Amino acid sequence: MKNPVRVAVTGAAGQISYSLLFRIASGDMLGKDQPVILQLLEITPAMDALRGVVMELEDCAFPLLAGVVISDKPEEAFAQADYALLVGARPRGPGMERKDLLEANAAIFSVQGKALNAVASRQVKVLVVGNPANTNALIAQRNAPDLDPRNFTAMTRLDHNRALAQLAGKTGAATTDIRQMIIWGNHSATQYPDISQATVKGDAAAALVPRDWYETDFIPTVQQRGAAIIKARGASSAASAAGSAIDHIRDWALGTPDGDWVSMAVPSDGSYGIEKGLIYSFPVTCKNGDYTIVQGLDIDTFSRERMTVTERELQEERDGVAHLLP
Ligand code: NAX
């Protein structure tokens, strides 16, 4: 058996974590031969609820769960962490402006970035799920100058999976028949779900569906799926968000399949003309625990316009918290 790895999860008493923790502990994320130690962070008022979650984790008697640590102090929860899933965030409260939300989260993610910098493994892989995820990841990254900036990522895998499901439904295919889906940009309603490179059973997806469906149905449905789930369920996506976080870390750690790629929001290196440094969702392949942005794709005018809209939104979010970035 391998040595256990340390997986820190924030917002551990929340609804996404209620699905996520059990799947990590069962081996869905890092493999059925990889023991894990869960290091769970919550705010002080949620520590009792978190103790209840830990009781349930114990009661599952997961063979791979080598330990559980709980804390309301980031320096304890992130100590020597190999993976950090930053799920907890401040939700938008009544009367809160977008700017207030950005600032409240900037405060949380700057503290957590500093703590990761101080105590996490030097190779820690960070996934930010808590919204606004891309900008929260940027804030954490900037506050962790001693860690590899490339190891700070944000989640657009849920959007990627939603796009696969919509295209599969329309073409009568299975999601596993589809390759090379892309989500560009921000995890928000400006994201650009792009099927121009996608194939379904080897055929170009764009030739299989009406252009009008793609532009006026597929794109807005994927962009607005989170809101549709809140409307139907009375609560935001949780199990699907947890599943996508599992997919994101699993593929980053263990690799993407040959001939396919996934979408991850990662620090832009200037690829496709996207401003360097923004945490922007690109198509990436993963191998040996590292990711590479897919290069050389043709970008037509339709795509370029949408890629720029979501880039601008990320620039605005960043400029809104610029005074809090070191
Ligand atoms: P919940 O409100 O159920 O849980 C969040 C938990 O985080 C709470 O238990 C809270 O006490 C805790 N928390 C708040 N501040 C914290 C801090 N400073 N340190 C540690 N814990 C803290 O929300 P949930 O439904 O689990 O969603 C969590 C986040 O994921 C939200 O920001 C949500 O908007 C975001 N989402 C992101 C998605 C993505 O694709 N990137 C999709 C799903 C989800 O909407």
The span between the termini is 42 Å
The CATH class of the largest domain is Alpha Beta
Write the CATH homologous superfamily of the largest domain.
Answer: Lactate dehydrogenase/glycoside hydrolase, family 4, C-terminal
Helix count, DSSP H or I runs of 4 or more residues: 11
Largest sheet: 6 strands, parallel
Round the Cα radius of gyration to an integer and report it.
19 Å
Strand order of the largest sheet: 3-2-1-4-5-6
Query: Which percent range describes the beta-strand content?
Result: 15-25%
CATH architecture of the largest domain: Alpha-Beta Complex
**Number of E strands:** 14
Structural class by helix and strand composition: alpha/beta
**Which percent bin holds the helix content?**
40-55%
Bound molecules: ligand NAX
Keywords: NAD, Oxidoreductase, Tricarboxylic acid cycle
Catalytic activity: (S)-malate + NAD(+) = oxaloacetate + NADH + H(+)
Pfam families: Ldh_1_C, Ldh_1_N
Protein name: Malate dehydrogenase
Per-chain topology:
Layout: E1 5-10, H1 15-25, E2 36-41, H2 47-60, E3 65-71, H3 74-77, E4 83-86, H4 98-119, E5 125-128, H5 133-142, E6 152-154, H6 157-171, E7 178-179, E8 182-184, E9 192-194, E10 199-200, E11 203-204, H7 205-208, H8 211-223, H9 225-233, H10 239-254, E12 262-267, E13 279-287, E14 290-293, H11 301-320
Parallel strand pairs: 1-2, 1-4, 2-3, 4-5, 5-6
Antiparallel strand pairs: 7-10, 8-9, 10-11, 12-13, 13-14
This protein binds ligand NAX.
Could you give a quick summary of the protein structure above?
The protein has about 325 residues and is an alpha/beta fold.
